[in-house]
Amino acid sequence: MSRSARAAAAASLFLLVACRRPPPVSAGRPGVPKRIIGASGLSVFPAFSPDGKLLAYASDRTGRLEIVIRDLSTGVERALTSDGKQNFSPAFSPDGRTIAYSSKERGGLFIIPAAGGSPTPLTDFGSSPSYSPDGASIAFQSHAVTDLAATSTPALPPSTIWVAPAHGGPARDLTSEGHPAGGHGEPVFSPDGKRIYFIVTDAKLFREELWTLALDGSAARKVVAATRLYDPTISSDGRTLVLGGIVGSSPPALLRLPLRPDGTAAGAPEILTPRMSGIPRHPDISPDGRRVIFSDLATTGHIEAVRVDARGEPAGTPFVLTSGTGRDTDPVFADDGSKIAFCRDRTGHDSDIWLMNPDGSDAHAITSGPANDFLPSWYPTRQGKVLFSSDRGGRLGLHAVEVATGEVSTVVDDADDIGFPKLSPDGKELAYHAKRGGITLNVWIMNLAKRTTRQVTFDRELIGFPAYSRDGRWLSLEVTRGDDNHVAVVPSAGGTPEQLTTDHGLSWPASFSPDGTRVAFCGLRSGGWALYTVNRETKEIGRVTLDLPFNDYVRYPEWSPRGDLIVYERGETAGSLYEIEFSDAR
Fold first, then answer.
1. Beta bridge partners of 571
2. Which of 33, 87, 164, 408 has its CA at 20 to 30 Å from residue 581's CA atom?
3. Do 372 and 495 share a domain, yes or no?
């Protein structure tokens, strides 16, 4: 998705997801993490050399992500790449002579001598490389990384696991779409080279699983499941697997999973890290098995706005409507333009639905309690209520809150297969995406009174994230084509989707102009994320904001009913590298 994107989207989409009967968690003895690299900016994807003397990681200190090599005994560093092509995810070869990495701007995987030199292309797609123990092969995921948000999802459908010869040659797919169901990402070899572990992400983004399979694609089996799992790494003796994750109501942490010789779990996941300021990601175990280095990532998102003219062109510079830690995200206007509903998520707290005026004043919560409430969508203003998704009662459902009283009622009790729901302007229908027994996402519409559903799109790759035009006649769509995402539209009554964008990169639509002639979308091009609009009839594209760095993003643009303002989430990810020692002799 890139083979499907939204990482971000929701990245990313959210850390705000329903809990599903997780496996028990061993109490363990959390260690004390010690920061070793970075007090500002972004340091990510640490990787030990085979002898444990060097550390490769990605840093944005030059303004672009580059691979850096650090001598762990002296602290001396040198830049391994310096081409400005957003390079990350380094992986040492078993002999320590070469490093494989991903390049966002060039696309695909590259090999470079660890001592320095010119990179050699390995593949023209994919990310997250991992060497086999004999150095002959590199496993990777077909999904291209779209952003570096702390809550970004490893890979959505139809991402699969591939293996390529380390010295060049045709790559082959190791897994196939839908087997197992979900997106496949972040592969890592077992030390004996007989199997690969990888993460499977459910398309509804409320559950992730760790799977393993043999190198011929056989003997696939699930190892463990949790609310969130990502970034697995395995010890050199094959007895311990460490990965990031969220199990049940526990905060995000590094988890240690004991393994049997056959690759199955020998016990429950053990929490390694205490509650941190950010989210632990990208762990790597030292060759001697005594410590782990990982990224502690924090994504801060706030609501910004930019004034636009009748053509959707910028009429001023962006200005901030909200501030604070955590994320303020997914802003949506009431149909009279008087209020904006949005989701507020603060680290260590459940997320809630808030309201504010279009100038950012009078911000206040309209939901509360022990649940994650997110993805608001307005009923007609005269009804005075907001629809939202929530994990209330331990399951994913759709609820409505009365703005005046705060009273909450259940609209759909079981919303497991309702992704990114959006109300029609009259409040009678609900557009959403779902897998519904298929391999990937397509768009559906539910009649809320009759509880009947109809399928709107029938794509084999991915069509999702629908949003209604203000008159209810059109839906904007996100369409996946290879490593690219595009903006498309389709009549809400049904028809053939029409693709509006063709540029290489990611285009994530979210709302229409009041007259329905233009669609606002967030676009990732070679320069970074920015806000754009595209004309539904002429397909003319207009730029609204300037490019952001790769670790920054824009999401969920919402056009005001009056047509003079576009509001959106502006986010930034920062992170340092930490080291933690195991509290026992394992």
1. 301, 553
2. 87
3. yes
CA torsion sign for 282, 283, 285, 291 is positive
Query: pTM of the prediction?
Result: 0.81
- Closest alpha carbon to 453 in 477, 476, 437: 437
The answer to the question of residue 583 being in a domain is no
Q: Are residues 386 and 468 in the same domain?
A: yes
The residue segments making up the domain with residue 84 are 42-145+155-237
HEC readout, 418-435: CEEEEECCCCCEEEEEEC
Distance CA 116, CA 586 (A): 35
Residue whose entry in the numeric block shows the structure tokens 């009279």: 336
What is the maximum span of the chain, computed from C-alpha positions, in angstroms? 69
Token pair, residue 374, equals 């997110």
Which residues share a beta bridge with 503? none
Q: Which of 258, 212, 219, 209 is nearest to 235 (CA)?
A: 258
pLDDT tens-digit readout, 36-84: 998 788 999 999 999 999 999 999 999 889 999 999 999 999 999 999 9
| 3-state helix, strand and coil shares in percent for the chain, rounded to the nearest 5 | 0, 50, 50
Question: What 3-state class would DSSP assign to 186?
Answer: strand
pLDDT at 222: 95
Main-chain dihedrals φ then ψ at residue 394, nearest 5 degrees: 80, 10
Is the pLDDT at 144 greater than 90, yes or no? no
Same domain flag for 224 and 303: no
Q: Is residue 37 part of a domain?
A: no
Considering the domain architecture, whether residues 219 and 325 belong to the same structural domain is answered as no
What Rg do the C-alpha atoms of the chain give, in angstroms? 23
Q: Are residues 161 and 307 in the same domain?
A: no
pLDDT of residue 435: 84
Dihedral sign for Cα atoms in the order 234, 237, 238, 242: negative
Q: Do 357 and 28 touch, CB atoms closer than 8 A? A: no
Cis before 180? omega within 30: yes
Residue 2 counted as domain residue? no
Confidence of residue 2 (pLDDT cuts 50, 70, 90): very low
| Average pLDDT of the residues in 292-317 | 95
Same-domain check for residues 183 and 315: no
Geometric angle at alpha carbon 20, from 440 and 257, rounded to 5°: 95
CA torsion, points 548, 47, 152, 121, in degrees to nearest 10?
A: 60
Cα distance between residue 572 and residue 27, in whole Å: 33
Q: Which of 566, 568, 562 is nearest to 338 (CA)?
A: 562
End-to-end Cα separation, the chain, in angstroms: 38
Order of strands, sheet of 528-535, starting from the edge strand that comes earlier in the sequence:
506-512, 518-525, 528-535, 541-543
Identify whether residues 205 and 322 lie together within a single domain.
no
Sign of CA dihedral 106, 111, 114, 119: negative
- Provide mean pLDDT across the span 360-386: 95
Ranking 82-86, 302-306, 569-573, 582-586 by mean pLDDT, the lowest is: 582-586
Confidence tier at 504 by pLDDT (50, 70, 90): confident
Amino acid type, 227: T
